[in-house]
């Protein structure tokens, strides 16, 4: 969503009840719900009844941009008065104000940091802390997974979620890493392809779970199955493949079956795109694979290459993958092990 306002909205802002819009929208953003909110912003073509600030059907919420801007103006004034200590507000008032601000502008660092301060100061013992942290997680995850282009790849929101996971660990509350990947990271990565910040957060979740914090680590088979399913469904997204390679380096026992399955799919669906073969070539060198996978690689490579034309993009990708493996396989033999650190870009 662009922050730019057209002339029609500017004119409409001169009239209207900003406080009512704020109250309605903040209430729906902070409501308790069993599933994450799916928030969508409506343009001028969607005209609502006078006095209506949003539409809701289950967990799906639609908010006109005009109403959101009205609510944002009121929320920003509230936050400024709070920060300047000119007026006293309850923690709930500020949480509602910052929620509206972050919906309008996901890069509003002051709003995010204010929420951190409120949470830190209000965290009681582990029993009551769970609800406070889970409510915050619900709100942030709803922003990250909704069809809001700027929110799904917002470094401020992903940083805030990372801070939240650290608070869960600090008070000893266990989280489900596999579920967080499935319901938050993978959804955001689908909403915004090549989502650098989402995949960085995925690595953080895996690293945190293996850090030895007296919490059960992630279920390897579940995480691997979910990640492979996502990559096979989005085979042109290199960021997903690089996360899968990250997992294989962490759990090398999964490498052989993953390479075999990927090569079979590449042959079946005629995958010649760079993302897939970038993953295959680095896996063949960066993780221990068997002679069977080497033979399978040659077979699939030849089968896909023979159907390409000279100077076609597919042939260039395949030839580059073969040339890369040929060059650096000598390094593998020289060092008697897989090559580490060769051109492994994590995008």
UniProtKB/TrEMBL annotation:
The keyword Protein biosynthesis does not apply. This is Protein prenyltransferase alpha subunit repeat-containing protein 1-B. GO terms for cellular component: cytoplasm. It holds the Pfam family PPTA. Keywords: Prenyltransferase, Repeat, Transferase. One of its GO terms (molecular function) is protein prenyltransferase activity. InterPro entries: Prenyl_trans_a. Belongs to the protein prenyltransferase subunit alpha family. The keyword Methyltransferase does not apply.
